[in-house]
Known about the structure:
Shape: globular
CATH topology of the largest domain: D-Maltodextrin-Binding Protein, domain 2
CATH class of the largest domain: Alpha Beta
Mean pLDDT: 92
Radius of gyration: 18 Å
Number of strands: 11
Largest sheet: 6 strands, mixed
Distance between the termini: 22 Å
CATH architecture of the largest domain: 3-Layer(aba) Sandwich
Amino acid sequence: xxSLSIGFSTCPNDTFIFYALMNNKMKxxxxxxxxxxxxxxxxxxxxxxxxxxxxxxxxxxxxxxxDYLLLRSGSALGRGCGPLxxxxxxxEPEELINKKIAIPGKYTTAAMLLKLYNNxxxxxxxxxxxxxxxxxxxxxxxxxxxxxxxxxxxxxxxFTYEKEGLKKIVDLGNWWEKTTGLSIPLxxxxxxxxxxxxxxxxxxxxIRNSVEYAFSHxxxxxxxxxxxAQELSDDVINQHIDLYVNQFSIDLGxxxxxxxxxLLKKGYKKGIFESYRxxxxxx
Length: 283
């Protein structure tokens, strides 16, 4: 088999997961040619079917159900790990109507959770004209500079926003957990359906083995992770990994699959997605 293209983000949780696979630390019968980009770039690449295997936000996946299949390994799900809506002043949710709110990409799960959270974030529920897309690392500076009134932060920003003098308006992940009782499905690893079940299962096994290697050789990974990380502090990097890489990253299990299923169905019922299909994950 020729090399398959694979895309994952530069964030510590993804470089942690893929270190062993990308650095020949384990046996895998498939060769990969990697692309590292921020998750929203990967989301958009998937709409053009550019990558055989890729990290995606679950909101993006909701639009691509006929093209990609969710793997059981490599996902970012959990509790206490959701995006935060922050500002430099303490807004009440109802005060956000038509305020400029930065989001880390149109297709991110963070943006979807904001839309599901509160109808007051926009006067026009179809257009969401007050939501401003930008790269996640630019959101905190944009709030501080007054370019936007508030922003939804993800990744390392969760651990640094208070040092920047910003205030939390709402923890969207905590809201999701309290509302649904489920873990927060943020992002996963997906393979093109056209690769076929046999190949997809081999890919899934390789990624699971890579995650297990990472847990057993954590110190070995730090140089690779720091090569791509936005925040180089060991403490922040370790907090990031501890928050987003867990048992769900090894195998979603039924609990993880149910959380994804609920999000996809909710998005379909709310008109965010045009369709839903039950066979969204490899078994």
